[in-house]
Amino acid sequence: MRALIDEHPHLGVEPVLRVLHIPSSTYYRWCQAEKQPCERRRQDIELTGQIRQVHADSGGIYGSPRVHAVLKREGVHVGRKRVERLMREAGLAGISPRKGKSFTRRDPDADLAPDLVQRDFTAPTPNRLWVTDLTMIPTQEGPLWLSAIRDAFSRRVVAWETSARADADLVLTSLEYALASREVAPGELVHHADHGTQYTSIKLTTRLVRAGIQASMGSVGDSFDNALAENLWMLIKTECIRGRVFATRAEANLALFEYIDGFYNPRRIQKRLGYLSPIEFEEKHYANQAAAEPVNLKPRQPALTS
């Protein structure tokens, strides 16, 4: 209505209001409210600006629950329903995940490890359960294969590697990176994968034995048996890959680096982690562990007297 009146000032305000059956007092009250908004409206405008910033910082990924959680962490006291309403009015929304495609190829003659996980993807501490898998990232140069290892405790990607070939060397390299970056006690860690030929290879199984790691495998063709790894692919392909066309493998590799090491591990908050990022969740665990350890104070020896 305001736009109509502004575009056709020659018609006059009162005639237009009579045709639209709108009292003139209502129209002038709306005009006054736009010039001098009430306190609630001013707060909404300010909150919307903060919401836009949080949403932009996430790369347009966060929906209202995570935006609300970030605002709460920053000391902004606002209801989740209000955040949801303001995002809707501002045309802001999160990204919904899509299910990915499986690339598992099984060797019928391979010796398979038992399923030590049984779909229970929880762990009491870091480095007790790692899940791993392979996926393919398309580029105009050809396929880029991504291997990643995820810690079930914090959901942190502890290691990842890419290659133009989906072979045993790729998964072995990602395992070596993980072992180099984490403190793993022999006999305590379970390495869970699917029945892919890369994970039943002699190279990988021998390295697991040497490191004192227990191998575990889910059943054939059932994504639920490696759901935590499948979930990672869903996130990456939804939040990092969707809608992008990579000219080269190097370009795709850079995008993965920016997402996994620059956003997912240090900054992407998760509801299951109490709206902390994987790194923050691990840091909180180690801080609590250190605070709970008793201080070992040796008794002071009395001074020797002659």
Describe what this molecule looks like in 3D.
This is Transposase. It comes from Streptomyces colonosanans. GO terms for molecular function: nucleic acid binding. With 306 residues, the chain is an alpha/beta fold. The chain has two domains: 1-90, no CATH class; 129-271, 2-Layer Sandwich (Nucleotidyltransferase, domain 5). It is built from eleven helices and five strands, in the order ααααααβββαβαβααα. The protein has a five-stranded mixed sheet, sandwiched between helices. Helix 4 packs across helix 5 and helix 5 packs across helix 6.
Q: What do we call the CATH topology of the largest domain?
A: Nucleotidyltransferase, domain 5
Radius of gyration: 28 Å
Helix content: 40-55%
Summed over residues and divided by their number, the pLDDT gives a mean of 86
Strand content: 5-15%
How would a crystallographer describe the biggest sheet? 5 strands, mixed
Number of strands: 5
The number of helical elements comes to: 11
CA-based shape: elongated
Q: Poorly predicted ranges (pLDDT <50, ≥5 residues)?
A: none
How far the N terminus sits from the C terminus, by CA atoms, comes to: 101 Å
CATH top level of the largest domain is: Alpha Beta
* Run of helices and strands: HHHHHHEEEHEHEHHH
Keywords:
5 strands; elongated; 11 helices; Nucleotidyltransferase, domain 5; alpha/beta; single chain; five-stranded mixed beta sheet; 45% helix; 306 residues
